[in-house]
Amino acid sequence: RPDGFMLPKSTSGKDVQLLARMIEDQAREADLASYAPSIIAIATETAASIFGLGSYGECAETLVALCWGAEDLSADLGALSVFDNNGQYTPPYQLARSLCLMGARAADLDPIDGIFADFRDMEGLRKSCEEALRDGFTGKLAIHPAQLEIINGVFTPSSEDIHAAKAIIKAFEAAGNAGVIGFEGKMLDRPHLLRARKLIKRAQLYASSADQ
Question: Does the pTM exceed 0.90?
């Protein structure tokens, strides 16, 4: 039994609901009533799908993440390339990436960055992962097993990051969860607390996956 399903060319939360019902029906027929695999939706592969990125909130309990892709979208748009002369994504694909990130966060789902196509360029992959982590993504799609070590290494919080996040959370709790606190000579507010909580949640998720 697969642990999860990836739904390509999802146009809205309705597509996820349909897949979830199909899985539930098949599981019931197979006498697997408790089987509830996770769903990851690729949510930017058509022009229409861009306009559905705000529809994934609470569409299915088993939906855990949204990810984005440029190549299928470029075919739907009739584009000649997804990159400019400097090797950077052109504006339509930067927009799709950003909206996927925001749509996932708005729905309280994990945002997963798209692929890095050159599986021989490990430094380029690392840079791409670090940029995705900086922007708020919690993972990255891989197209080759050789990419997994770097992807997992970048997105798995370090022990230092975990320690710092726990210290921030503890400091807010000690201050009665005030809106603003002083911490190690700096002023921290609610966004810092939310980032710390998200990091701890991500660390717990990676630890759980490693144990399986």
Answer: no
